[in-house]
Amino acid sequence: MAKRQASRTTLERKSRLIFGLLIFLTVAACLGWPWWQMKRSAGSGDPGRARTTARAYLQNIHAIAFAAPPAAAKQPPGAKPSDEARQLAAKRAELLRHFGKPKGEKGARLIKIAPAEPDQRQRPPASLAGFEAQAVDNFLNHPEEVSLCRTVGQSFLYAQALRCTEGECLDCHQNEYQKDELIGAIVVELDVKDRLDTLLANRLTLVAAALLVVLVSMVIFGALFRYMVVRPVRHLRDVADRVSEGDLQVRSEIDTGNELEVLSDALNHMLDELSKAQADLRAATETRDAKLDELAKANVALFETNQVKTKFVTTMSHELRTPLNSIIGFAQVLSDSAPVKNEAKLSRYAENILTSGRMLLELIDDLLDLAQIESGRLQVRCAKTAPRDLAEVVCNMVRPMLPESGLNLAYEVDPETPAMTTDPTKVQQILYNLLSNAIKFTEEGEVRLKIRPVQDERVAFAVIDTGPGIGRDQQLRVFQRFTQLDSGYTRRYRGTGLGLSIVKELTGLLGGTVSVESEIGSGSTFTVVLPVDSSNAEGRTPEDVAAAEAADDGAAQGERQI
Questions:
Q1: Which pLDDT tens digit goes with each residue over 17-64?
Q2: Domains 259-375 and 379-561 share a fold
Q3: Which of 247-256, 318-327, 503-512 has the highest mean pLDDT?
Q4: CA distances for 483 relative to 131, 172, 318, 475, angstroms
């Protein structure tokens, strides 16, 4: 939670916090030595002050001891001093005592140490305790020590050793103490409350000054940081917000002479490029919209033209079939009449008329089928149908087309092939187109129709011929409309190139597929696979099939892109 809250802290707050912490640590490190030096300096005068007080006290003691009236010194031995001399000595001693006590100090105390007994060491007085006992023990055990000091609370304790050394002490006390023997110790207690108060005040002043430095530094840094960093960054954020709202005309205006100005210039350049790209995109969109409008108008015109063409083809096909059937009928009568049969030339003419009429009728039928498919009026009408019946009917329909060269036509139905629910008329037309196409391009050999069941409850209709075959590069084009393969065989037989395209349209309408397998010189095999039950395709139109195929092509293209 604290980490998340810290991440939400603004840049200004983070910078202030980090800078304040650094300033605080820097000031603390810089003031550490004055803090320690201040304490050392404040306490350095205490030992000298105590030493001076002890020396003054010692001198006062000697002065009092030697305070005696001058007359007393001239009196004979054993004579008693006069009262006047005694009073004068007492007055001098009292004055010396008053003069020897420093004003404002707690005073000093003399601790006397008895001389050592023969063959024994000196012993401290039994009444001593605390600092006094420690000082005396230290002086007795360490003859080289001359002083000891300690601060306790608001008092400074000082002890100075008095030893019987050569000079005045040995001259006065030679009958009592041995050389270097401890005569006593002067203990001085100084009041250091004022000094401690002064030290505390100085330290508080130092801390206040440090805090003031930190505060002023943070204020100055905050003002500078806000002016030099925060304000430009907020300006950039405001520009970015306006750009996100769609205003590409806004520009950043920063003149700091540092990286923020470089960033501002880069942002302005990016906005210029973005505005230019948006203008280009707008122009391209307008151009595309204009082209789409033109394409829409062209599509409407093409649709209307296609409707007119379909209507024309349908009407003309019906209108041409009637006179063409009459021509074929009369040509058949002429061809069968005895005078024409007996005359070879007339018989050849009649046969050409009959052949040309049949070819023209086939072309008209293909155009009529195509017109019906394009108009969307061709629908599936399912019925129960036996595949063997379909094969017999279609083979009987195309048998008259067999040439006199002895081309064999046969069909083969697998006994396991089930009955189908499909549109028999359209299946017959599919098989008729495939068989007639195979007979047209096969001069000798055999054309065979094979019907067998395949997986997923489907039935395969294969038309196999021994014709010239189709190259691999041309197999993808045979199902396109108005396609004629460029070969010596195809140039003999003219046609619309609609037969196989109609097969593909009708096969898709029934929910099936069509494919071809062929090699040059090895014949061809056209295979149509239809479902056993095509009732789900009943009512479908070629437009529905085209839409479904377009959707499948789009899905397949999307999968390839992925």
A1: 787 788 878 877 777 777 777 766 666 677 777 788 778 777 777 766
A2: no
A3: 503-512
A4: 129, 153, 24, 11
CA dihedral over 396, 398, 399, 400, signed as positive or negative: positive
- Contact 226/40 with Cβ under 8 angstroms? no
Place of tokens 């300006």: 235
Class of domain 379-561: alpha beta
The DSSP annotation for 279-318 comes to HHHHHHHHHHHHHHHHHHHHHHHHHHHHHHHHHHHHHHHH
Question: In this structure, are residues 358 and 328 in contact, taking their beta carbons and an 8 Å threshold?
Answer: yes
Q: Take residue 277 and report the two structure tokens written for it.
A: 């790209």
- For the chain, domain boundaries: 259-375, 379-561
Rounded distance between C-alpha atoms, residue 384 and residue 149, angstroms: 130
CA distance 200 to 204: 6
Length of the chain: 562
Q: Using alpha carbons, list the distances in angstroms from residue 113 to 137, 139, 160, 268.
A: 11, 11, 13, 97
Q: Amino acid identity, residue 476?
A: L
- Let me know if domain 259-375 sits in CATH 1.20.120: no
- Residue 251 half-sphere exposure toward CB, CA atoms < 13 A: 11
Structure tokens at 251: 């520009």
What tokens were used for 5?
Answer: 């809250």
d(CA 264, CA 241): 14
